[in-house]
TrEMBL record, chain B:
Residues 4-199 form the CobQ/CobB/MinD/ParA nucleotide binding domain. It holds the Pfam family CbiA. It comes from the Bacteria. This is CobQ/CobB/MinD/ParA nucleotide binding domain-containing protein. SUPFAM superfamilies: P-loop containing nucleoside triphosphate hydrolases. It comes from Croceibacterium mercuriale. Gene3D superfamilies: P-loop containing nucleotide triphosphate hydrolases.
């Protein structure tokens, strides 16, 4: 593994083999509500169309409340959420309109490697 | 359906880096993986250690020899992506043109939202890379032209080039995680070794196997596998 000279000398001075990166996780309470964040939470392209101005304010308030009420992120990593329901795969079915040679060849390429592996 | 789109409404956020390294990680996890570079910049290959003048097989050109690097079959899809016939096929109601036994990673240029829109009905997941900068955050309103971001169901936000020593970066991560919940799939730390590996025309995994960005991508792909339905939740949890 290539290692930069300055890193190598730092490790020597520390008597270590490698570096461990420190996460500067920020407690949620310390998060500043930057205007850009507020603008996003008030943008209908983000939070959706509310039926009335009051609904819009409620949606914005709900999103802001989630931010205020939620616990700090653990370990600085987003937790893996549940898998999105997913229907079983069906076999590839190129549409009949795909008569274009380039398109047909492309989907042939996608299938070609599997065919070779099976043979 | 196992098409995973990488497209951000803001350029310069590491979309191609994430597409390339997620493809490599998916291949390392045993998925039969194809990566298609739909951009005119054609830089996806650089993350695989290929040279700028090294051509990829053109998608739809049966005469080309396959190029497989790090377990990922690579295609240049720029011409195909502009093909009227291809776009027409994608528009057909009920069309299921992509094979389901492969994971297909599509790298789409920021400006090409039209292609993103056409591919989206066929995709299991749309990964939206961001950086903790105001312009990238502001561009979130353009992820989908018709549906508000919070109502999108097959969308995963990824905060890339994260530097936790920077206040706005830290706050951005907290904000995105809390505001968008499970839609935030993870974050990848800023890592200069990514650029250094590319500058040497070599792969990041080979030159800097302990790169923090690589570790973050591995964690991220575990989340994306679940979101795209590539693994059962139970199997992932026990891994």
């Amino acid at each position: 593994m290539a290692i930069r000279n300055d890193v190598s000398s730092l490790l020597d001075r520390l008597g270590r083999q490698d570096l461990r990166y420190r996460e500067f996780s920020d407690p949620l309470g310390d998060m500043e509500m930057w205007p850009i964040f507020e603008a996003l939470l008030q943008d209908r392209r983000i939070v959706g169309e509310a039926s009335t101005p009051l609904d819009q304010r409620r949606r914005t308030a709900d999103a802001q409340q989630r931010i205020k009420a939620a616990p700090p992120p653990a370990g600085g990593k987003a937790d893996a959420g549940p898998a999105i329901p997913y229907s079983p795969p069906s076999p590839p079915r190129p549409a009949a309109a795909a008569d274009d040679p380039q398109v047909r060849a492309f989907f042939g390429q996608l299938g070609a490697r599997g065919i070779e592996r099976d043979s | 359906m196992s098409l995973i789109l990488f497209h951000s409404p803001k350029g310069g956020v590491g979309n191609t880096f994430l597409a390339a390294h997620c493809a490599m990680e998916l291949a390392a996890r045993g998925h039969d993986t194809v990566a298609i570079d739909f951009t005119y910049q054609a830089t996806l290959k650089l993350f695989f250690g290929l040279l700028p003048d090294q051509p990829l097989v053109k998608a739809g050109d049966p005469s080309g020899d396959e190029i497989v690097v790090a377990g990922v079959e690579l295609f240049d899809g720029e011409e195909l992506g502009r093909s009227a016939a291809f776009r027409q096929l994608l528009r057909q109601p009920g069309a299921q043109p992509f094979p389901t036994d492969k994971v297909i990673v599509a790298d789409i240029a920021a400006h090409d939202r039209a292609l993103r829109q056409l591919l989206m009905p066929h995709a299991a997941l749309h990964v939206v890379p961001l950086v903790p900068r105001p312009a990238a955050l502001a561009a979130l309103v353009h992820v989908d032209p018709d549906i508000p971001l919070m109502e999108l169901e097959r969308t995963a936000l990824v905060l890339n080039m994260l530097d936790d020593t920077r206040t706005l970066a830290r706050h951005s991560r907290v904000f995105l995680t809390q505001a968008f919940g499970d839609m935030m799939a993870g974050s990848v730390r800023r890592d200069e070794s990514v650029a250094e590996a590319m500058a040497g025309f070599d792969s990041l995994a080979k030159l800097f196997p302990h790169s923090p960005a690589l570790g973050d991508v591995a964690h991220l792909v575990g989340v994306l596998e679940q979101r795209a339905g590539l693994v059962a939740h139970e199997a992932q949890a026990s891994a």
